[in-house]
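User: Please fill in residues for this 406-position structure.
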């Protein structure tokens, strides 16, 4: 925010990990970026370090035509109607998590939500129901998703046996792959596929414009991608929702009253929107133009890294007056946000595929917790936002004391 104030809506940073990046902080330029055609820009190159986990056909790493083909194949599975059915499953998983809470206990809502969102991915996305397999995956998958620091450095990628960090990673990944390929095979051999209602089933029946289905390799890569893109982001947003709510009685009280009545009013949606506005887990999204491109009064050379700053647009005092930092869900009851002013899921053809899924998950998990428990913040001061790469985490994980559980 200080850089924005000092240097204006376009400013540059340069560090060892990200290299030179131009940050774009005004709504009009970001609107322009989100309207670029698929061939106007790339996003895959800076994400290459993720390839050992996601595999080469991950939608996150593809650009232009190949990206568009994959996006069209995956999109129907994430449509609002297709995902509404998962609410019941998410609710059951949340109730089981709450069953383990005791009055007086100190919990980290982000960690609790991570256990929930992980299981949601295993059951609703991978469609795995066998409890032994679910338990094994719950053990090994978090190790795969936390490997990122190692991936940034080529030199660290050496297999020095099962005890070395990379060796352990390769073995974990191979075990996960084995389980996913088995699951894919089992489904392919099953005549009544339609009995299952999960994302894998929908992806298995998807066909591209030439009538081709996804290969096993592509299916595996997209399943892991959905885990990586969908599990921590959603859990962290739930952690932030509690971090804010437990310090804002004005918002917590009407929300608790609404969820205890058991009906879904508008307030929960406003709380989710406001959480994603004041604490956007992904603070910026990257685009590298493929040709010389004018933006915000500057001319950028091809391959320049341009970062659309979600955080700075959502903190713009002109767009969210008078106090953009205040947590005030009512603002979303008064007016729908203007286009390109509320952008926690990015925009254009790269917009988050799981946006509806994530908001459904946030809604069900937050409602279920508030309906059954009373929580208070472990300390009165706000938790600091800690940056990990471009993600924004609550410094104490949305810590809370459980006062009562029904
Ligand atoms: C609150 C939770 C979430 C947030 C804040 C979030 C945010 C984002 C953002 C900012 C992007 C990049 C958009 C851009 O470049 O314009 C993205 C991409 C993506 N997200 Fe999410 N996400 C969340 C949850 C999920 C979930 C639950 C899933 C799936 C189960 C998911 C799947 C994806 C995929 C597949 C992409 C890549 C889309 C593409 O490149 O075409 N996300 N997400």
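Assistant: Residues filled in for all 406 positions:
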């Amino acid at each position: 925010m200080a850089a924005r104030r000092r240097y204006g809506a376009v400013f540059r940073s340069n560090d060892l990990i990200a290299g030179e990046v131009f940050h774009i902080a005004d709504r009009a330029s970001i609107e322009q970026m989100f309207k670029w055609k698929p061939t106007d820009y790339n996003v895959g190159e800076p994400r290459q370090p993720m390839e050992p986990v996601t595999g080469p056909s991950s939608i996150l790493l593809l650009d232009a035509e190949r990206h568009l083909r994959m996006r069209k194949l995956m999109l129907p599975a994430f449509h609002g109607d297709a995902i509404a059915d998962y609410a019941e499953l998410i609710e059951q998983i949340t109730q089981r998590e709450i069953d383990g809470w005791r009055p007086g206990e100190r919990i980290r809502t982000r960690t609790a939500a991570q256990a929930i969102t992980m299981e949601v991915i295993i059951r609703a996305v991978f469609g795995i129901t066998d409890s032994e397999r679910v338990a094994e995956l719950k053990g090994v998958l978090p190790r795969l998703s936390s490997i990122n620091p190692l991936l940034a450095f080529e030199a660290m990628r050496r297999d020095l046996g099962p005890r070395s960090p990379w060796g352990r990673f390769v073995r974990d990944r191979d075990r996960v792959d084995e389980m996913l390929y088995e699951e894919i095979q089992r489904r392919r051999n099953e005549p009544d596929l339609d009995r299952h209602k999960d994302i894998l089933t929908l992806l298995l029946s998807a066909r591209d414009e030439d009538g081709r289905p996804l290969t096993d390799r592509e299916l595996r890569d997209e399943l892991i991608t959905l885990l990586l893109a969908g599990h921590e982001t959603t859990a962290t947003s739930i952690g932030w929702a509690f971090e804010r709510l437990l310090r804002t009685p004005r918002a917590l009280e009407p929300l608790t009253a609404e969820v205890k009545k058991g009906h879904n009013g508008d307030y929960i949606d406003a709380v989710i929107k406001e959480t994603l506005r004041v604490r956007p887990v992904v603070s910026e999204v990257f685009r590298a133009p493929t040709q010389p491109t004018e933006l915000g009064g500057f001319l950028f050379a091809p391959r320049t890294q341009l970062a659309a700053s979600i955080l700075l647009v959502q903190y713009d005092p002109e767009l969210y007056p008078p106090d953009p930092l205040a947590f005030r869900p009512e603002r979303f009851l008064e007016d729908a946000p203007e286009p390109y002013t509320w952008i926690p899921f990015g925009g254009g053809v790269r917009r988050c595929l799981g946006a509806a899924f994530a908001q459904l998950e946030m809604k069900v998990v937050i409602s279920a917790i508030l309906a059954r428990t009373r929580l208070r913040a472990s300390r009165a001061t706000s938790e600091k936002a800690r940056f990990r790469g471009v993600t924004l985490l609550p410094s104490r994980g949305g810590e809370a004391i459980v006062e009562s559980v029904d």
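For context: The domain at 2-405 is CATH 1.10.630.10 (Cytochrome p450).
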